[in-house]
Amino acid sequence: MSKKILTTPENRFLNLKDYPFESHYMDLGGMKMHYLDEGDKNNKTIFLLHGQPSWSYLYRHMIPVLVKEGYRVIAPDLIGFGKSDKPIDSNDHSYSAHVKWMSTFIEKLEITHAAAFMQDWGGMIGLRVLANNPKWLDRLIIANTALAEVKSFQRWMMPKMLKLLRTTSGKPTLHSLEQKMNYGNWAGYFTHSEKLEIGNIMQLLTTKELTQDEMDAYDAPFPTPEYYAGPRKMPEIVATDLDKAYSDWQELKKWSNPVLTLFSDKDPFLADQGYDKLFQNNFPGAAGQPHITVTNASHFLQEDQSKELVNRILKWLSQTKF
Q1: Residue 27: phi, psi to the nearest 5?
Q2: Catalytic residue flag (residue 93)
Q3: What's the pTM value of the predicted model, to 2 decimals?
Q4: Which of 77, 94, 175, 290 has the smallest set of CB atoms within 10 Å of its CB?
Q5: Any idea where the domains of the chain sit in the sequence?
């Protein structure tokens, strides 16, 4: 672990629109993870896990409704994102490191038998945490995410294929990414762009129009390029830790609690690719659940359809007697 760790100045987060929540911090061996903890501590807990390049601001519309309905809501910021600390060495942002950080966070909270909503890297990390801490959750909602389960030869080939896609994409601009949203352009943009326009990236991956204040809030965690190591590195590590991810999948297949999938119809990465079916077919507790495709929603469906998401989550938790 490199010694150089940055903390985004608090004044970057002043007066954020619709984000009145109190900040909490947990020390993870010299690294501070920021998280929101709303609602009565005695109520059942729902975790909301975000991905790249977003942060807990993504859940600002969902949190108050869940709290009003009687749940405790915990929404952490991944290390390198949001208000959490940011190691500047990209090598610190390995897949296994993010799993370890989140695992430590979960274990130190000492909360078990909770529910969780996982999207993007929130799922890629959170699912592996669950595989190794099966009593952490009793209910799981999965949205617009994936977890690799590749065997032998594919585990050797996949990293090479993705590296080739990154390399051949050149140095994509925001415009070229808008024209063709695929893995190569996504990884190339985050690797090579001198300035990461996170707010504009979020707009490209939503169907609703974000306000300037909202886009500024997504830019807030990253005042200068020194802070970019987390979002820069994430696309590169998609196909790492494949042996451990495969092993974790085998553990997840034994996890029999209820699972709901809520994938978007307009996600340029995952829509109609069968990832929702992969979860439905591999989790025993997904059988017979009211899985749906959320319409008029892009990758960040929390922005596009927050009301529908919350309503479906609350109805499902009630139906499954959580």
Answers
A1: -80, 125
A2: no
A3: 0.96
A4: 175
A5: 5-150+242-319
